[in-house]
Design goal:
44% helix, disordered N terminus, 13 helices, alpha/beta, two-stranded antiparallel sheet, 8-stranded parallel beta sheet, 10% strand, TIM Barrel
């Protein structure tokens, strides 16, 4: 017994240091800390079919508290299908690993997002062993809401089984330009009729909600009339955009069915001198004040050329936050930068320290994100 007591005494300094370290880490990741709130505002893409303690994305979750990740089946920078999606079993295990890593840091679930609209915009492809999907254009042409519900239910149930809790769908862009390379050209719009778009979007959203999968309607304030792809550069819709493109967004918001709204990197001289994602006139005045959307605004990928080629990272982040964007997307699939989350966090902390972005502005976004995540736990 004396030896055991002596050993215990010797251990006290070690236990004390462990306790102090754990308390320090807890304070750093406390939900009311600035660092935690900023981290929750970031959505980041990464490489890997699996993750480990040494993975950059795991460090981002643990050390920078990022609130969301996004999965892809194809790695654009390396031009290879080695990215995040190999098989249903593998994706399910990846999602479990990511969620477990996040749960060690916070009670808030990690948002695990994907673009699974159907048809040409499907990350979960049949060749990997996933369920067959059809395009939104196909469903709109069929124009049978029961069919749309069947496919929406199949998609949502598959996502739930995998552990993916956010679908960046449905696309509610109105197909006003069938030759549009990124919307019409990829069969992503339900219809050229705003009412048809809204009806089918609401059906898809309802089926996702039944499976406890969040959705994001996109691309606000309407990408369907454009003639170019914002992945590749600035898209000017000044001459062709019409207010009819707002109708599906309004219908979904009025029905209280909009979990998230994703912005578009399109430019319209009648709105502002910057693209919609960076425009306070579009995000705060139009979306928040006029359409009365109270949920989470998520940016389209900030690394797309329409933003990245025109603005430095610092200016892009600043303008997006000033515009009213809650969650910044860095898909890491236009360019790949393992330090993108670290850089974004540093930029936002500096903007707050310099009073360019107020603490209240960060708090507002965090409250919306936390409220959205709380729904996944119900």
């Amino acid at each position: 017994m004396p030896n055991a007591a002596a050993s215990a005494v010797k251990l006290l300094p070690v236990l004390a240091s462990v306790f102090i370290l754990s308390m320090s880490n807890a304070q750093t990741s406390a939900p009311d800390s600035l660092e935690f709130k900023i981290g929750q505002m970031l959505l980041v893409g990464f490489r890997g079919f699996t993750v480990s303690d040494t993975s950059a994305i795991v460090k981002d979750i643990r050390e920078r508290h990022i609130g969301a990740v996004i999965l892809f089946d194809y790695d654009v920078p390396s031009k290879t299908a080695v990215r995040n999606i190999e098989s249903p079993k593998q994706v399910a295990q990846l999602c479990r690993s990511l969620q477990q890593c996040s749960s060690m840091q916070t009670a808030l679930p990690l948002l695990i997002a994907i673009d699974q609209e159907g048809g040409k915009v499907s990350r979960l492809k049949e060749k990997y062993g996933f369920k067959r999907s059809v395009s939104q254009e196909y469903l709109g042409r069929l124009n049978r809401l029961d069919s749309t519900r069947v496919y929406g239910r199949a998609t949502a149930s598959q996502l739930r089984e995998l552990g993916v809790n956010v679908n960046f769908a449905p696309c509610v862009d109105v197909n006003l330009n069938a030759q549009n390379p990124i919307i019409g050209g990829k069969e992503r719009s339900f219809s050229s009729n705003p009412s048809v778009v809204a009806q089918h979007a609401l059906a898809v959203i309802d089926e996702h909600r039944k499976q406890n999968v969040l959705t994001a309607i996109k691309h606000f304030p309407g990408h369907g009339s454009s003639a170019a792809d914002s992945h590749l550069g600035v898209v000017d819709v000044t001459k062709q955009w019409t207010r009819a493109e707002l109708a599906p967004f309004k219908a979904v918001i009025d029905a209280e069915s909009a979990d998230m709204v994703m912005t578009a990197h399109i430019f319209n001289a009648h709105w502002d001198t910057v693209p919609a994602t960076l425009s306070r006139n579009v995000i705060t005045k139009l979306l928040r004040d006029t359409l009365r959307f109270r949920g989470v605004v998520v940016s389209d990928d900030m690394q797309m050329k329409a933003i990245a080629a025109q603005y430095g990272l610092g200016d892009a982040v600043k303008l997006a936050l000033l515009a009213g964007v809650d969650m910044l997307t860095f898909g890491n699939n236009m360019d790949y930068d393992e330090r993108i989350a670290e850089k974004a966090v540093a930029i936002i902390k500096k903007l707050v320290a310099e009073n360019v972005i107020s603490r209240e502005r960060i708090d507002d976004s965090y409250r919306r994100i936390a409220a959205l995540k709380a729904r996944l736990k119900q």
